[in-house]
Hints:
The protein is mostly beta strands. It has strands at 15-17, 29-33, 42-48, 53-59, 62-66, 70-72, 86-88, 93-105, 110-116, 126-129, 148-158, 163-170, 177-191.
Amino acid sequence: MPTAIKIPPVVSYPTMGTSLPGSPVDGQQAILVDSTSSPTYAWMFQYLASASKWLFIGGSPAITEVATAEFTNSTTYVDLTTVGPSFTIPRTGQYEIAFAFNQYGQNIPGGAAVKLGSAATSVNEGFSSGAGANGAGAGNAISSATRVGGSKMFSRALNAGDVLKVQYLVEIGASGNTFANRTLSVRPIWVT
């Protein structure tokens, strides 16, 4: 009797593109990129039919940076001369957002927050550092060599096309501070 030939299972690789498949099936995987020739991020998803969502299962965050050191003495959130960093949300869903910056100047409290789409910039998506926060005390100048800063991470539901943009302020406007090494990191949790 001849020996039965075992045929290996067909291996299905995730598709990669600038959009996710339009009619997914449960368990299907796909990789979302912003460019097929030179991607700045690659996010792998698996479709969960019972929730009608693509669940993020791997990939690096999208990171944007502004290294330019720029000054403001505004006591309300504003764009600096070089706006951002910023990022446009590719698909509606839940996202993990993180940002960081350094500041120096007169050691007055200063901070930043992420503006979420068309909503007003809110302290709920930001933080401050400087006088009182770092223990140096008001009036002690901070040089570019001894700058203060920090980072914050949070999660928000966002719509496709929402632009995330970091904006800056100081709490005492007469002197102002310089903000540098500004970064924004975005990673999905799930998308539709």
